[in-house]
Design goal:
The protein is an alpha/beta fold. The chain has helices at residues 14-23, 51-57, 95-109, 214-219, 224-230, 236-244, 287-306, 312-340, 344-356, 358-368; strands spanning 2-8, 28-32, 45-47, 68-76, 80-92, 112-115, 119-124, 131-135, 138-147, 170-178, 185-191, 194-200, 206-213, 246-247, 253-258, 271-272. The chain has a single domain, classed as FAD/NAD(P)-binding domain, CATH 3.50.50.60. The radius of gyration is 21 Å and the shape is globular. The structure holds flavin-adenine dinucleotide.
Length: 373
């Protein structure tokens, strides 16, 4: 069988795209190397800009009582802190629950899945203009290919990407915890080499997630407990949280090799979305919304293409223009904030500045969030 669209990677960008396209009447195949449900390293804060789209795509979400997050706190070292309200804000939900609900909705709508199967390569037949995706379990024929394989894709966004390596790599660590705290507040606690976020998710749990320069982990011989003791606990708020929290799972979920290379949203073979097109540093809490926003826009352009209102070339150039206008500046700002946040000295100066001019902080938060869609 030939599909209208094959989507490689069924994460927070690929699953909504599959549902959106299926609802528009197209035959969709998702090739996913993993399975559902599963935990993923993520702060699990979703900007409110995606709220309506997510509920339209996945009605089961509207039945959940999820925490609304509209206050923000930044701390560094001992007793340096800044608190403000957030204009748009966000809500909290675990990736475990969110992806599981999206997967079930996609199946219900009739999206086909190849699970535990890895896509290896994509070939274009110049005669028929069909694509063949080579997978670990046979070939998939399709008219269009969308790549939502995330930040660590084996399928490169462009030939140049194959030669690019990031100068700095980060490690991400996540726990689910229980502790009494303000459910409407997201806290970012800076420490040497990184920062740790805490915000609430479903069922009264909180997501405790940090990102740290891999050099810091190397310095403590790759021991996570040592990393926490040596670096995170330099911030007394973090030491207090770790000492008082009840850990829902004792071993954290971890990920290494995180970088923030800028990639490309379109190549000859695929349309890229989510982190596969470029990743937003987590300090701005907007990576998932970037994936959702690009799924919504791409689905619309693909629909126009199949309805013959635009050519394939226009589909590519429209999506490319959309992506750059919407995300290129935000990604650059997120990378700048990421670098800043590694240094307590700079974070402390930023906190002082924010305390002197609170509207400045609200302006920065506004710049990192998009508009509701
Ligand atoms: C520490 C940390 C904290 C974060 N916190 C937040 C936050 O609070 N809020 C927020 O909005 N964003 C946050 N982000 C960013 C967010 O997690 C990402 O932007 C988001 O996960 C991107 O979704 P995606 O669908 O593009 O990629 P992914 O979620 O990585 O999904 C990619 C999928 O593709 C599959 N795959 C990969 N290769 C293949 C292949 N060859 N064949 C088949 N399948 C394949 C993978 O198994 C995976 O399921 C954080 C990121 C980090 C690192």
């Amino acid at each position: 069988m030939k599909y209208d669209v094959a989507i490689i990677g069924g994460g927070i960008a690929g699953l909504p795209l599959s549902i959106d396209l299926k609802k528009r009447g197209y035959d969709v195949m998702v090739i996913e190397k993993g399975n559902y449900p599963r935990h993923k390293v993520c702060g699990e804060y979703i900007s409110m800009e995606s709220h309506t789209y997510l509920q339209n795509i996945c009605p089961a979400l509207s039945g959940l009582d999820l925490p609304v997050i509209n206050q923000f706190k930044l701390t560094s070292g001992k007793r340096k802190e800044f608190t403000t309200t957030m204009g748009l804000g966000g809500f909290g939900i675990s990736r475990f629950l969110l992806e599981d609900l999206l997967f079930k909705e996609a199946e219900k709508q009739g999206v086909k899945f190849m699970l535990n199967i890895k896509a290896r390569d994509i070939d274009l037949d110049p005669g028929s203009l069909n694509y063949t995706i080579k997978t670990s379990s046979g070939d998939v024929m399709t008219s269009l290919v969308c790549n939502s394989t995330g930040r660590k894709s084996n399928l490169k966004t462009s030939p140049e990407m194959a030669h690019k390596t990031a100068s700095t790599n980060y490690v991400g660590v996540k726990y689910h915890v229980r502790l009494p705290r303000n459910a409407n507040l997201i806290e970012i606690h800076n420490f040497p080499g990184g920062y740790c976020g805490i915000s609430n998710i479903e069922d009264g749990k909180s997501c405790l997630c940090y990102i740290v320069n891999s050099k810091n982990l190397n310095a403590v011989k790759n021991s996570i407990p040592e990393l926490e003791k040596t670096f995170l606990f330099k911030n007394d708020k973090l030491e207090e949280i770790f000492n008082h929290a009840e850990f829902v799972f004792k071993e954290p979920v971890t990920i290494s090799g995180i970088n923030f290379l800028i990639k490309e949203p379109v190549t000859d073979h695929s349309f890229f979305l989510g982190d596969a097109a470029g990743s937003m540093a987590p300090i701005v809490g907007n990576g998932m919304s970037m994936g959702l926003r690009s799924a919504s826009a791409l689905s619309n352009y693909i629909d126009q293409y199949f309805q013959t209102s635009i050519t394939k070339q226009e589909l590519a150039s429209n999506y490319n223009a959309f992506w750059n206008k919407e995300f290129a500046t935000r990604i650059k700002l997120s990378r700048f904030l990421q670098q800043l946040s590694e240094y307590p000295f700079l974070t402390k100066r930023t906190i002082e500045l924010f305390n002197l001019f609170p509207p400045l902080a609200r302006g920065v938060i506004r710049q990192t969030h998009g508009k509701p869609f």
